[in-house]
Amino acid sequence: xxxxxxxGNNGYLSASAIKIIAIIAMTIDHIxxxxxxxxxxxxxxxxxxxxxxxxxxxxxxxxxxxxxxDLKRYCGRLAVxxxxxxxxxxxxxxxxxxxxxxxxxxxxxxxxxxxxxVINTGRIEKAFKLPAILFMIxxxxxCDCGTNAVYFTLAFELARDKGRIKQLQxxxxxxxxxxxxxxxxxxxxxxxxxYELYRFGIFLPVLVLLLYNGERGGSTSPAxxxxxxxFFYVFYPLHIVILTFLRTKLGx
Length: 252
Prior knowledge:
The protein contains 10 helices and no strands. The protein has helices at residues 15-35, 41-50, 53-67, 71-97, 105-120, 126-141, 146-158, 164-193, 204-209, 222-250.
């Protein structure tokens, strides 16, 4: 099994293209939270599309773990940008939801990455691996996207050697479990909870990842590769500051 997975070179989308899709979906989602009523058809559509982002980033956390030349630098980069992004994220949370008691999604991605390391490392005894992962899940619970992001990442990681299709099957199984409470709410009170249908957008990444060709994509220039590497980390806090500022100035 090579690193490109079961789709090999037959897919149409490179890693760079999929990350751009994730960034666009994230922006759409944040626009929805700030400017559109969640209980409206438009709000449901925006958030449905927005469910693409977290699972795609979780997928590339597993890919990044296996392809990075320096795991410590990778973790350090996530930690630094998590700190940088925290105040902008709190600004967004306060404006959109009236609260600011969570960590940003970059913290969640860091905890997900550490969970992948725990699974693969020989430095931790097997008896301590599960407690360590449970601690990462607890930490992620305090952050945006929460525990599901860790579950998604672990699903991708544990099925990674079995090929892309098995990865997506494992991910889909986690989605079904995660959505059971939503299904219950919809069955019991669809007229009041219909807008929760947006949560089913977490299945969209399956369609995108089926088109993944296993290639990095983007420019071959070393300078442009560095720009690409840091683009998400810079874009994340920058776009939420701009959108939140516009919301406070223009009103909803």
